[in-house]
Amino acid sequence: MLRALLLLGGLAPALPAGPHWAYEGPHGQHHWPEGHPACGGRAQSPIDIQTRWAQPDPSLPPVRPVGYQRPGTAAFTLANNGHTAVLVLPPSLRVQGLPRSFAAAQLHFHWGRPGRGAGAEHLLDGHRAAAEMHVVHYDAERFANASQAQHHAGGLAVLGVLLEVGSDPHPAYDNILSHLGSIRYAGQTTAVPSFSVQDLLPPRLDLYYRYNGSLTTPPCFQSVLWTVFQQPVHISLAQLEQLQGTLYATEAAEPEPQSLVDNFREPQELNQRLVLSSFPRGPKGYSTGEVVAIIFGAGAGCLGLCLALYFVAKRMRARRAQQQDVVFKASSRRTPTADAPRP
Ligand SMILES: [Zn+2]
User: pTM higher than 0.70 for the full model?
Assistant: First the structure.
């Protein structure tokens, strides 16, 4: 959900303007192209990243956040825009290691619903993580703000962080999640004390997938240079449930409140686009997934062979026993006959 900031210019994001859209129903994602033609384009996001087809590119440098640890502001604005929770970021937060210098605009989340774990947008080999955070930046060398940049190829750069459930709460995420109760309804905003935004990112900023895509919500402009980190960040189940279960997609005055859940878009066609990885594949050119598959495959093969040998041996033993039995019975039948004529 990137639209929120597009109305902002650094101010508190208001409710999105333009044609109404949702994830399900008559205004759901399959109808987005009707009001927003770019949503039917051939370079849309998110995608299902097939790790074995990702092209390793050793020239891709680590992502380097600048000013993330001390954002230099007393407080951030956190808003419920009816589609997600958005934290507005000052442009003093920069990201280097991209083709140009990008300035931060906002971050927001995508999630599922209580009792159902999966709500991320980008998939890794078909796996959908519990949730996903997007940190949105704009090309500060060419554009004054994200609203301008969103119309131009490569105008935006988004960092995608996959969130999985682990045993411990992640303290950095509490800086945001503990304030969701103040923005239950669409249109509400609250102040969040400043904290290190870098602590929301995974430890390894040198491991990521890179491709050209789009905003994952209307207007779906195809202007995003995507970086999806390979490592997920782990939050606790209680934290995930806070994200899944606190917000409404409707305003406070709405007589029939609707929970803000399942705000993720289905994966889009890759359409000949190349997905790069900043890291080499595993041994002998295999990706980690393939190595795991090979190990499991070899294990299963060995087990199968052992079982086959066992059954063959068992059958041979049984046949030999049967032959011996026949010999024994034949001889035992012969014995009395041999003995019979004895007077
Ligand atoms: Zn998003």
Answer: yes
